[in-house]
Design goal:
2 domains, 36% helix, Dihydrodipicolinate Reductase, domain 2, Rossmann fold, eleven-stranded mixed β-sheet, binds NADP nicotinamide-adenine-dinucleotide phosphate, 19 strands, 382 residues
């Protein structure tokens, strides 16, 4: 089976390496025949090309593996490949979560598939597990620590009592965080993964902008001090739940109780858990990123296509996100408290308070109305 690879960076070079090395008989059935690169200096392999059309118009290539990242031209290239009757495997959560509907519709029209295991949890077999679980069970919900960078920062802040900015620079020095860390620390990376998990778990397309999202950009040592004094640990949690006719889905820092398995996930590890009727809770822990683990997931999808396991051909239905059903108590720290008077249950510091039990929609609306750039919110686990 011949493969065209788009992008030859961290993930793409890992895909090329795994397929070239061919450790198993399945992988030895695969061959990377062309690799799209951007710059002449990257023409390091005779298979490299600067022209996407060399891959698009090669009738022997039946699978395109997109590992370039970004929205464009990744979206256009993936769409053109699908229209040409080529399967697409992608590690690009941002592109797929944004253009999900368009790409799935195109795939269905062309009788091919889109696979995206690597886009969510890197090498952790999260999507494959959802595929298996939902063959037997309705998946009721999922939650996860989907982002290694923010977990690293929160873990080190807790263990060393340091402040956010110090830990962010350390994560950047270690290569865990990008020079522009916004997607990680503002929760958007997790939001893309929550959207794609909704597709797989619930056969549901959701609008990413409807996923209520709070990150950890404004977290301070004093927030974690309060958390620790109350026997809790802060983690950035992405979650989704399925209801008749709608889903709830959000990303929010959450103060977890010490006996919650999630509170002990260290460093840059991920954990993702599904909840279904007969299986109950099933969790996966591992490195959610890295060249070879992520490439492993891409190659798994390629083998799935070759073996003709095509779960993605199922129809997907768009469902709205409604977070009125997501009720909880929230820790909020803000200097602009005027609009919160009716929501406060008790104060836990000069600027911080715990809300009454309210919906996430109510909490998010009050936070938006406060218009305080340094506001921090976390959900407090029951
Ligand atoms: N790294 C991980 O551990 C990991 C884990 C899970 C998912 N992912 C996802 O996988 C995707 C790739 O990530 P990565 O870490 O491999 O990124 P990367 O190291 O930056 O690799 C992307 C490569 O694609 C190239 N590229 C970009 N636009 C191109 C174009 N128009 N034509 C040809 N080549 C182009 C880039 O070239 P330039 O550098 O010259 O721009 C770069 O070499 C992203 O969507 C990322 O979110 C990554």
């Amino acid at each position: 089976m011949k493969i065209g690879l788009l992008g030859h960076g961290v993930v793409g070079s890992g895909v090329r390496q795994i397929i070239d090395e061919g450790a198993t008989w399945e992988v030895r059935e695969l061959e990377v025949v062309k690799i799209l690169v951007k710059d002449e200096s990257e023409l390091t392999d005779p298979r490299c090309t600067l022209d996407f059309n060399d891959i698009l118009n090669d009738p022997e290539i039946s699978i395109v593996a997109e590992c370039m990242g970004g929205l464009e031209p990744a979206h256009t290239f993936a769409k053109k490949a699908l229209e040409k009757g080529k399967h697409v495997v992608t590690s690009n959560k941002k592109m797929l979560a944004t253009f999900c509907m368009d790409l799935f519709e195109t795939a269905v029209k062309s009788g091919v598939t889109v696979h995206y295991e690597a886009s969510c949890g890197g090498g952790i077999p999260w999507m494959a597990s959802l595929d298996r679980t939902r063959r037997v069970d309705d998946i009721e919900g999922f939650r996860g620590i989907f982002n290694g960078t923010t977990n690293y920062i929160l873990d080190r802040m807790k263990k060393e009592g340091t402040d956010f900015s110090e830990m962010l620079s350390e994560a950047q020095k270690l290569g865990y965080a990008e020079r522009d860390p916004s997607d990680d620390i503002d929760g958007y990376d997790v939001r893309y993964k929550v959207a794609l998990s909704c597709v797989k778990a619930f056969d549901t397309l959701v609008n990413i902008d409807d996923i209520t999202t709070f990150g950890i950009r404004n977290i301070r040592k004093e927030d974690l001090d309060w958390c620790a004094a109350n026997g809790m640990t802060c983690k950035l949690i992405g979650s989704g739940k399925h209801f008749d006719g709608f889903v709830s889905a959000c990303v929010i820092p959450t103060f977890l109780r010490g006996d919650d398995i999630f509170s002990n996930i260290p460093s840059n590890f991920n954990i993702i858990e599904s909840q279904s009727k007969t299986l109950g809770a099933a969790a996966f822990v591992g490195q959610g990123a890295g060249s070879l683990p992520t490439a492993h997931a891409v190659v798994q999808n390629i083998v799935d296509i070759w073996k003709n396991q095509d779960p993605e051909i199922n129809d997907k239905f768009a469902k709205p996100v409604d977070n009125q059903v997501h009720k909880g108590t929230f820790y909020i720290r803000t200097a602009k408290q005027a609009g919160f008077a009716d929501l406060i249950d008790r104060r836990v510091g000069e600027l911080a308070f715990i809300t009454k039990k309210i919906s996430l929609v109510e909490a998010a609306a009050a936070c938006a109305a406060a218009n305080d750039e340094s506001l921090f919110i976390a959900e407090v686990a029951e």
